[in-house]
Write a structure and sequence with these properties.
Shape: flat
Number of strands: 2
Number of helices: 5
Order of helices and strands: HHEEHHH
Strand order of the largest sheet: 1-2
Radius of gyration: 15 Å
Helix content: over 70%
Strand content: under 5%
Length: 112
């Protein structure tokens, strides 16, 4: 589910970039914003989650990055004129974090 949510978040960002802009900016935002989010997601990680982290961050920082990506994607859906889809996506993300409370608790304990 986590990977599907990550992909959906990137698609939501691309969708917003496409509908909110025209011309060359449309292409730049539709491709650039998801690429930036994916890069941040992949680079700033906790150690051994899985493998070596290119840039190791404390667990709470990782949770903030995830919240920013998922929250940003929810906002992108809303701004793209899809408020119902934004609510569904945001709700699924919230349920996912409630269901994986053990991972959230573990991340909150990792200081480095």
């Amino acid at each position: 589910l986590s990977f599907a949510l990550e992909l959906a978040a990137l698609a939501a960002m691309a969708s917003w970039g496409w509908v909110a802009h025209d011309g060359a900016a449309r292409w730049l935002w539709a491709a650039g914003l998801p690429l930036l989010a994916a890069a941040v997601w992949g680079v700033f990680r906790i150690p051994n989650d899985p493998g070596d982290a290119p840039v190791a961050v404390p667990g709470p920082v990782r949770l903030l990055i995830e919240a920013a990506v998922f929250g940003g994607a929810t906002g992108c859906l809303y701004a793209a004129g899809r408020p119902a889809l934004a609510a569904v996506f945001g709700g699924i993300v919230l349920l996912h974090y409630v269901a994986s409370y053990d991972r959230v608790a573990r991340l909150l304990r990792i200081r480095r």
